[in-house]
Amino acid sequence: MERWVKRVAVVTGASSGIGEDIAATLVKYGMTVVGMARREDRLKQLEKRLENEKGKFYPRQTDVRIEDEILSDFEWIEQELGPVSVLVNNAGLHSNKALTEENTGKWKDILGVNVLALSICTREALRSMRNHGINDGHIINISSIASQHSTPLPGCSMYAASKRAVMAISEGLRRELALSNSLIRVTTICPGLVATEIIDNSGMGSKLPPNLPILQPADVTKAIIFCLEMPAYCQINDLTLRTVGEDEMKILMTIERIQNEKNQAKVEKAD
């Protein structure tokens, strides 16, 4: 990680979970990290926690659904910190309702954060790199195993669609960069279930089997550091993380069994 010391990294969704952990870790490695998120209080707490570390953390209260706020952040970075070398597109939204029950506004938010904001941040980071002659930058997109197959869990249909779009965007961008003889790398990280707020906010937490092995944010961070530490000529395109023995169908069957037991109990109680 020595070659990244004092260089600028941007991390979206930095106020919790994976984003918070990767931002903190990059600061500890000596990078200048700009954390974007809506919850300014959480960003300020992280800034305080990292004030004595090797690098520096800069909080930016940002709603990435709003393009002008993203553009303002990148303009500030350009003026105050210099060119971007690393971008971690981590911010993401999920739903807790079935496709037939969700409203259009929520879908727009999911696509706005998971796809459009990722694309805008990527465009602006690449412009910064190119304008300053940085040819060894790294774009890291946090996708999901949901990009590989959809599940019947509530809210997963549109979420999976957005994460498949992330994979398509990443693949297309790699080819664009290759055709322009750029050495800027693009990596997608596809974790399985991770212990973050998105599980509880989506309603999945209460539906998962007890004592289910689950990834931690630090596990994803280690994968990101691994990618950043690779020699500049080596690109890891896609990296999938899951717990040992993780089986979606087993999880789904367990959830279905629990739900059926609850439904049966309701019927018996009614009788």
Automatic annotation (TrEMBL):
SUPFAM superfamilies xrefs: NAD(P)-binding Rossmann-fold domains
Annotated family: Belongs to the short-chain dehydrogenases/reductases (SDR) family.
Source organism phylogeny: Eukaryota, Metazoa, Ecdysozoa, Arthropoda, Hexapoda
GO molecular function annotation: oxidoreductase activity, acting on the CH-OH group of donors, NAD or NADP as acceptor
Record keyword Lipoprotein present: no
Record key words, sorted: Oxidoreductase
Organism domain of life: Eukaryota
Pfam families, per the entry: adh_short
Name under which the protein is recorded: Uncharacterized protein
